[in-house]
Amino acid sequence: ETLRILGLPAKSLHAQMSQKSRFSSLESLRKANSRSIVVATDVAARGLDISSVSTVVHYDVPRAVDTFIHRAGRTARGVGLKAVGTSISLVAPSEEKSHAKICVSLGTKGFDEAPIDGRLLSHAQERTALATKIVSCEEVESKASRENKWFIDAASDAGLDVDENLLDGGLMDGDRRDRQRLVEANQAKAKLRDLLSKPMRRQNYGKFLSGVGLTE
């Protein structure tokens, strides 16, 4: 949800999804010239053969080398010159030992490090922090809405009138801290909307990234 609020074409893929929803997520990757993102659990690590997948990002380091191989193997599925892909691991300090074991198992001392542009990272962190704040509040509001719908439907089925005082008003009906969270979330939406309308500037020689994309 955070990625979608950031304006990125992101979908999810996990075992709890219906078959129809899974197919929808996979189809987004098959579209020509698609820049779709699918956030997946290891349910997607085996058996998927989609030639248009160009990049795999390991958000966490897998515990087993075969899991790493299957994840990374979702890219470079094309034929000939098209069989090129990129696998990126985000390695936290607590995961360095696990990552080192994978490297040893694959017969290498380590993989190439990906350079990070400090200025670009700062822009991304600011946008992500705002999106996270928005998601946090929207989850509370969404939960209240679902519970109210269940309550109203149950009352309707029983032929009873609904006392609106019993409905959950979400953050607006909460204490002062909850109401402040709602105000801050609305402010975050306005600020994020403004930031996403501007390109993110690289640190090196003033090159730009267009929109929320990652190509110059």
UniProtKB/TrEMBL annotation:
Keywords: ATP-binding, Helicase, Hydrolase, Nucleotide-binding
Molecular function as annotated in GO: ATP binding; hydrolase activity; RNA helicase activity
InterPro entries for the chain: DEAD_box_RNA_helicase (IPR050079), Helicase_C-like (IPR001650), P-loop_NTPase (IPR027417)
The species this protein was found in: Ditylum brightwellii
The protein, known as: Helicase C-terminal domain-containing protein
Gene3D superfamilies assigned: P-loop containing nucleotide triphosphate hydrolases
CDD domains listed in its UniProt record: SF2_C_DEAD (cd18787)
PANTHER family: ATP-DEPENDENT RNA HELICASE DBPA (PTHR47959:SF1), ATP-DEPENDENT RNA HELICASE RHLE-RELATED (PTHR47959)
Residues annotated as domain Helicase C-terminal: 1-122
GO terms under cellular component: cytosol
